[in-house]
């Protein structure tokens, strides 16, 4: 039982980066923008976080630097696709390729960097419980904050006027514009917030989860996060559950290997992607369900003068 509870704790830790990035991309897509550059933003944020943490000795400063890096790259992407009306998919792919190459270039000197030790954290009283306490209630604060943020996002999207406006922009930007809402600025703000969250996810990977920088260390999580928003049909609670599901698939493979099951490492590396393909294939069998939940104007440019 202790082994499985410990495994559950690892699932929460592994799924946190996916949850943060996916919630950021969900905000983008609720506003009608698809950003395929998540992988590149997460890589740039991961190396930026390590660089700032090494320079300052503060993990939290590194996390903020990761958010800033993701936000800046997302702002550039937003200006291109929202004001210059470049193709969202091509621009996102270019951003992903740029981030992959740029992070590898600037991160060369940081592959062996030593990060400061993390300050131990535990939820009062719960962290002292036997067995479950150390596994579930002594995680990094971000593991718990992302859960709180997911429910706060539900409240924002479905219980506030600002959330209603954001969803309206994603459903029908022409109607929102006719009512006097600044569609382009709202979309840009959503893109920047989403990019900052992708940046936080990348910095979490390098500073909290893997504790260091390695070239390509995001390992496709940005692409899985994009698929996860579709898997969750653009619902924050489902995004959270899906992130832990994929985190569980990742950790299950390592657990089986540790228990003596002979599994090639290549198979372990491909398991999350196989799970992604299987889930998307199952969802695609019911396209009507996707259309009902998908923002109507997702991926479509908006021309205020038309």
TrEMBL record:
Residues in coiled coil: none
Topological category with respect to the lipid bilayer: Multi-pass membrane protein
Pfam families: BPD_transp_2
Membrane-spanning residues: 6-26, 33-54, 60-82, 89-108, 141-158, 186-205, 239-257, 263-283
Compartmental location: Cell membrane
Domain of life of the organism encoding this protein: Bacteria
The entry's keywords: Cell membrane, Membrane, Sugar transport, Transmembrane, Transmembrane helix, Transport
PANTHER family: ABC TRANSPORTER PERMEASE PROTEIN (PTHR43370:SF2), SUGAR ABC TRANSPORTER INTEGRAL MEMBRANE PROTEIN-RELATED (PTHR43370)
Protein name from the UniProt record: Simple sugar transport system permease protein
Higher taxonomy: Bacteria, Pseudomonadati, Pseudomonadota, Betaproteobacteria, Burkholderiales
């Amino acid at each position: 039982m202790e082994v499985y509870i410990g495994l559950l704790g690892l699932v929460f830790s592994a799924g946190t980066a996916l949850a943060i990035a996916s919630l950021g991309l969900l905000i983008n897509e609720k506003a009608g923008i698809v950003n395929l550059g998540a992988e590149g933003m997460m890589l740039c944020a991961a190396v930026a976080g390590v660089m700032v943490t090494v320079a300052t000795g503060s993990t939290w400063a590194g996390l903020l630097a990761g958010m800033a890096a993701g936000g800046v790259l997302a702002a550039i992407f937003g200006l291109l696709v929202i004001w210059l009306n470049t193709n969202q998919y091509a621009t996102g792919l270019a951003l992903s390729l740029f981030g992959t190459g740029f992070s590898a270039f600037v991160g060369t000197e940081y592959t062996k960097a030593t990060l400061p030790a993390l300050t131990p954290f535990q939820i009062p009283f719960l962290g002292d419980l036997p067995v479950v306490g150390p596994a579930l209630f002594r995680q990094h604060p971000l593991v718990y904050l992302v859960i709180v943020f997911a429910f706060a996002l539900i409240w924002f999207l479905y219980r506030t006027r600002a959330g209603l406006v954001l969803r309206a922009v994603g459903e029908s930007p022409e109607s929102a514009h006719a009512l006097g809402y600044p569609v382009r600025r709202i979309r840009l703000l959503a893109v920047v917030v989403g990019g900052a969250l992708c940046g936080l996810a990348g910095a979490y990977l390098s500073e909290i989860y893997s504790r260091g920088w390695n070239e390509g260390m995001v390992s496709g999580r940005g692409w899985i996060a994009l698929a996860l928003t579709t898997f969750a049909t653009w619902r924050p609670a489902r995004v959270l559950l899906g992130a832990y599901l994929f985190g569980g698939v990742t950790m299950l493979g390592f657990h089986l290997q540790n228990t003596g099951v002979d599994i090639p490492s290549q198979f372990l590396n491909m398991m999350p992607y196989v799970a992604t393909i299987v889930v998307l294939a199952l969802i695609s069998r019911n396209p009507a369900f996707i259309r009902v939940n998908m923002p109507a104007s997702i991926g479509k440019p908006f021309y205020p003068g038309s």
